[in-house]
Amino acid sequence: MLFRSELNVRPEDFVFNKNRFSVFARGSSGLEPILRAKQIENLLVCGTLTNVCVESTARDAMQLGYKTVIVSDACATRSDAEHLGTLVTFLTSFGDVRTAKETLALLGSGARDIRAAQ
User: Fold this and answer.
1) Percent of the chain at pLDDT above 90?
2) CA-to-CA separations, 81 to 85, 90, 117, in angstroms, rounded
3) For residue 60, what are the contacts with CB-CB under 8 A and spacing of at least 6?
4) How many angstroms separate the CA atoms of 72 and 84, rounded?
5) DSSP 84-101
6) pTM of the model
7) Contact criterion met (CB below 8 Å) for 19 and 27
8) pLDDT digits (tens, 9 = 90+) for 25-62
């Protein structure tokens, strides 16, 4: 698996190959059992394509009961219209959308639910 050096993947990080649009699709990865075992409740979702893999994963996470945030400026897709359309739909019906700066501030504050913290 290839990584850009800027990602700073550490030995203690979990790395998964994903073979479906959503990381939570049956048979897609081994992520969910680890999240459950570690009692993870909040998920930050970012990556490419915003309107395909990011949206699929974020929607599935919400349906599975995770408090889910799409990190808007840590995602990309083919056009601004596709990107914005996904963010608006997700924010309206599924979870929250925050910038990386907002997300880091909330994480630094110790917020227990990164969706609802102000």
Assistant:
1) 70
2) 6, 14, 28
3) 22, 23, 24, 25
4) 9
5) HHHHHHHHHHT-EEE-HH
6) 0.88
7) yes
8) 999 999 999 999 999 999 999 999 999 999 999 999 99
